[in-house]
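queue> holo job accepted (nicotinamide-adenine-dinucleotide)
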Amino acid sequence: MIQILLIGCNGHMGRAITQSCRYNENMTIVAGVDAVVNVDNDYPVYADIFDVKETVDIIIDFSHPKVLNVILKYALEKSLPLVIATTGHSDEQKDMIEKAASSIPILLSANMSLGINLMVDLVKRATKLLHGSFDIEIIEKHHNQKIDAPSGTALLIADAVNSTLAGNEMKYVYDRHSSMQKRTRDEIGIHSIRGGTITGEHTIIFAGNDEMIEIKHTAVSKSLFAEGALKAASFLYDKTPGYYKMQDIFE
Ligand SMILES: NC(=O)c1ccc[n+]([C@@H]2O[C@H](COP(=O)([O-])OP(=O)(O)OC[C@H]3O[C@@H](n4cnc5c(N)ncnc54)[C@H](O)[C@@H]3O)[C@@H](O)[C@H]2O)c1
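queue> job finished
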């Protein structure tokens, strides 16, 4: 039985993972960490990760980027594998994660869903064929409580486009209202819509002359991310140190 320490256990995703784990025969949550501790949980919850007393095999983080430093410190000290699902890290934090991955196994993904990772694969194939003659735009939609924009997944999709092109040549454009000029071929427009209870929708548009291709993924509940994170944890927990991606699981 793989023993999980869940960071952000009392948030939306933390609760979804707790729910998924109840039906998982191979994994169990032995402790949680959250700023909110006055909730009835299936396991002990700590405000400070260094107070955790339980034996842990792996950490799953669905919390807030500001928690990263302390999680990395703890994971490195205890030599624990770490699944990072939290989004919105700064470039400096991403460098810290990459550096830590030389000592412990780390899997970072802005989107834990199987469908989105397939979408990334399709986007790479489409980019190889269409780049140069099609304009690329990404639209993402989320609920009105989401703070960061664009979504980490929209950036993941944009990065997938660039990863197939030599020299990361496309630049990201988030705001067109301030520049009165036509778009150029070397840009990806990224647009964020916020409203209601939308779980998450991502569309990439390849717009050419007289034809348009859209690849779209719709999430209808958060449990797909929870299931993906548990899959990531069972993949990662016995791996050697390194920086892993969701794509590695499917390969
Ligand atoms: N990778 C994915 O597939 C995926 C999917 C959904 C959400 N996310 C990301 O996961 C994160 C959490 O999402 P959510 O919807 O559950 O958010 P949420 O706000 O509902 O939950 C975050 C939890 O983290 C806790 N937290 C905040 N600061 C803390 C601190 N300093 N110490 C301890 N706990 C702290 C909060 O109390 C809260 O319970 C976000 O970054 C979100 O973008 C990733």
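queue> The CA atoms of residues 94 and 196 lie 31 Å apart.
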